[in-house]
Specification:
6-stranded mixed beta sheet; about 450 residues; alpha+beta; globular; 8-stranded antiparallel beta sheet
């Protein structure tokens, strides 16, 4: 039976109540891995053999208690240096919700890895050492979360036991961070005082901070409202593969396979194929070997059209009533993630959904200064971990949404054509939800495409 529109929305609401994707970030030695380990341990999400392995390593180091940070620091180099290097993904569940956790590095050298972990997150936990307060790396993590449009941010003020569980220390840090994150346009900020080492306010309420009446970290994670309703957005269907069996049983079958990035597709709906702009009508939708009348994000389906149109991988099928605009001039904010600089005039590949096109970096109008959120004009290049505005000219038109409207179809990668290295992660359109400073505008020089 084909579900109705109300049932589709109901399925999206069900997903919202059962799954939360969240990322953790914090500067080196802020106790981030310890917090994650404590969260997993106290929520009974650690297998016996994992805990035994951690206890054995901790005993070898002469530690009296298990070092819970070892539950997430899986690389040998991480354990030797006591820092997180790679993004560690952990899957766990409580009676109220399932979780996908991305434990991202804290060292400035690996800030780029936070982009990977937070790009699909619904919530980010930013740790701060109560003794140090808000530092540059804290501001960097807040900026990345804001750029990636993470809707919920938790400020976990850790090591409260080392400042005597003093309320005024927590209040000062919370006020400073909240003001900064609000300038970036973060819609919701929740501050929680914790001691990850002792477990205060991680899973169980702290007996040492009776002045705090808010939720524990786990309680907030279990109850924060999260919407995964991609069906409320306009339909976007990037074509991944063209299916033409040309067999005796299916001599004329032509289907376009892919994953619906957002919205709902219906049989009989008028659609436009981009970037060509040609139009047709959806004649059929095949899902899991069955013909259906309706399909929604993020289902993987095969779409059949009434007309034979030249469509290939990388094309986008969208409703004719609400198609995205096509452009060859991409204005975006990027997080530079490669060791080699990204300079004006660089020739790159731009990968957007299933489409990859040649492009040139026309201009780098500004680089973000994290201290005061001002824009440093015309830096000439971006280096590893820089956040800046770019103007990119593509060889072919792209059907690009603003990142604020769609994290799926508003994001892209810049790639080195020589070796396939990812250079930058880009977000099309305005950089932050609210602009506290004026961004330098790009000019309109000529192109050689």
């Amino acid at each position: 039976m084909t579900p109705t529109t109300d049932q589709v929305a109901g399925f999206a609401d069900l997903a919202a109540t059962t799954l939360l994707r969240f990322a953790t970030a914090g500067s080196v030695d802020d106790g981030k891995s310890t917090l994650v380990g404590r969260l997993l341990h106290d929520s009974k999400s650690v297998l016996t053999d994992q805990l035994e392995a951690v206890e054995a390593v901790s005993a070898q180091r002469g530690q009296d208690a298990p070092d819970l940070a070892l539950l997430t620091d899986g690389l040998r180099a991480e354990r030797e240096q006591g820092i997180t290097i790679d993004v560690a993904y952990r899957y766990f569940a409580t009676a109220r919700r399932r979780f996908i956790l991305a434990d991202t590095p804290g060292h400035v050298q690996y800030t780029r890895n936070m982009v990977t972990g937070a790009s699909t997150a619904d919530l980010a936990v930013v740790l701060v050492d109560a003794r140090n307060g808000v530092i540059e790396q804290t501001r960097r993590h807040a900026a990345v979360a804001a750029l990636l449009r993470v809707p919920h941010v938790v400020l976990a003020v850790n090591k409260m036991d080392l400042v005597g569980f003093e309320e005024h220390v927590f209040a000062k840090i919370a006020a400073e961070f909240t003001a900064y994150a609000s300038d970036l346009g973060v819609p919701e900020i929740t501050a929680i005082p914790i001691s990850a080492l002792a477990g205060d306010n991680v899973v169980e309420p702290s007996a040492h901070m009776d002045w705090y009446g808010g939720p524990t970290v786990l309680e907030h994670l279990e109850t924060v409202p999260v919407s995964h309703d991609l069906t409320a957005c306009p339909a976007r269907f990037p074509v991944q593969y063209v299916i033409r069996p040309q067999t005796a049983e299916h001599p004329d079958y032509r289907g376009y396979a892919g994953q619906i990035a957002s919205g709902v597709l219906r049989v009989g709906e008028a659609v436009t194929v981009l970037p060509s702009g040609r139009t047709s009508v959806i004649e059929g939708i095949d899902a899991l070997g069955e013909s259906v009348d309706i399909a929604w994000a993020p289902q993987s389906v095969t779409v059949r059209l009434a007309d034979d149109i030249d469509i290939s991988r990388g094309d986008l099928i969208a409703p004719s009533a609400n198609p995205p605009a096509t452009t060859q001039d991409v204005i975006a904010t990027v997080c530079h993630v490669a060791d080699q600089p990204l300079a004006v005039g660089a020739r790159v590949l731009l990968k957007h959904t299933t489409r990859t096109v040649k492009a040139i970096v026309k201009e780098i109008p500004s680089r973000l200064t994290l201290d005061d959120l001002s824009q440093h004009p015309n830096p000439g290049q971006l280096v590893a971990n820089d956040i800046g505005r770019v103007v990119v000219r593509t060889a072919e038109p792209l059907a690009l949404d603003a990142y604020a409207d769609s994290r799926r179809t508003g994001s892209f990668l810049l790639i080195d054509p020589a070796d396939g290295t990812t250079l930058a992660a880009g977000m099309a359109g305005e950089s932050f939800a609210s602009q506290a400073r004026t961004t330098v505008q790009a000019d309109d020089e000529g192109w050689d495409f």
